[in-house]
Amino acid sequence: MFAFMIKFKDNISMNEFTSCFVGIPLPDKYLGEFSDLLRRVDKTYPNLKIVDPATPHVTAYYLDKQSQNNLEEIRQVVEENAKLLRGTNLMAGGMDTFGDSAPVVLFLPVSYQDPLVEFNRKLADGLARFMAENDNLSFHPHMTLAYFSKEETFDSWGSIKAKIEAEMNNINWEFPITEVVIYGVDSTKSPEHQEKLVTIPINE
User: Fold this and answer.
1) DSSP, res 2
2) Is the pLDDT of residue 200 over 90?
């Protein structure tokens, strides 16, 4: 039997979030490996801005700046469609970037699973009014590792890219989707602060 148990974060600390997104958390069993990977990448190429190791996730849908007052409506749409992910396994590993000649994000690619793609499409339909106006990129499942500096010339990246790729090609994580989370982001803090606002467990 399929059931939801919705959990809101107690005492949400912000009324406004610089952005929100729907994500699938990396299971606890891989958290140590994720942190180790971030350390190795940072040591190999310190020019990158490494993500917070506390909240690794697969991005399912990105939302624009949000008020806490919108969370209930967003939650309802996510809850209605989360059943699509029941019984779905994800695989993460390898290296890719958003932006080719001038990359902006370094990430682990995640397998395109039909239920995840359909989940993203349903959220895009149901949450259209919350989406950033310029967010018209196609869905690309991924786990962000780091951001490139705006001042990056990419000369040094070209010489170190193969070493980073070798590190990330050793990653081979496979895991079931057991919960979906709505995250809130405060980009005004350094490092960027992310928190789990709503957790929707998915039970068989």
Assistant:
1) -
2) yes
